[in-house]
Amino acid sequence: MKKSILVAVGGNSLIRAGQRGTIAEQLENARITSECIAGIVSRGYELVVTHGNGPQVGAQLLRSEAGSSQTYTLPLESALR
Fold first, then answer.
1. What pLDDT digit, counting tens, does each position of 23-77 carry?
2. Alpha carbon distances (Å) from 29 to 41, 46, 64, 69, 79
3. Residue 41's closest CA among 49, 29, 53, 32?
4. Residues 7, 48: contact at Cβ < 8 Å?
5. 53: which residues sit within 8 A by CB, 6+ positions away?
6. Rounded to 5 degrees, what are φ and ψ at 47?
7. Calpha distance 78→22 (Å, rounded)
8. pLDDT band, very low/low/confident/very high, at 81 (cuts 50, 70, 90)
9. CB neighbours (10 Å) of residue 80?
10. Confidence of residue 7 (pLDDT cuts 50, 70, 90)
């Protein structure tokens, strides 16, 4: 029977200490994270990947609230699609 691992991607795996969280930074960090995850899979583990709900979600909520006087609001989950 294979062992299973749950990996939560988000937060520190996408925005490193000292970074602003730009798209370019997050894409590069996601590439690095993906390589690490591929290594886990290559060792025979079954994998479940989920979003860690880190600072990206909080930042999206702040953007939505800051603009609420100028446009209609959207439920937070609509930004994650």
1. 899 899 999 999 999 999 999 999 999 887 667 777 778 888 888 888 877 776 6
2. 19, 22, 25, 34, 21
3. 49
4. yes
5. 8, 10, 11
6. -130, 140
7. 20
8. low
9. 11
10. very high
Structure tokens at 1: 């029977």
Amino acid found at 67: G
Helix, strand or coil, per DSSP, at residue 58: helix
User: Which residue in this structure is represented by tokens 């994270």?
Assistant: 33
Report which secondary-structure segment, H or E, holds 8. Answer: strand 4-9
Q: Which residue has the tokens 């999206």?
A: 60
Answer yes or no: are the C-beta atoms of 56 and 13 closer than 8 Å. Answer: no
DSSP class per residue in 11-57: GGGTS-TT----HHHHHHHHHHHHHHHHHHHHTT-EEEEEE---HHH
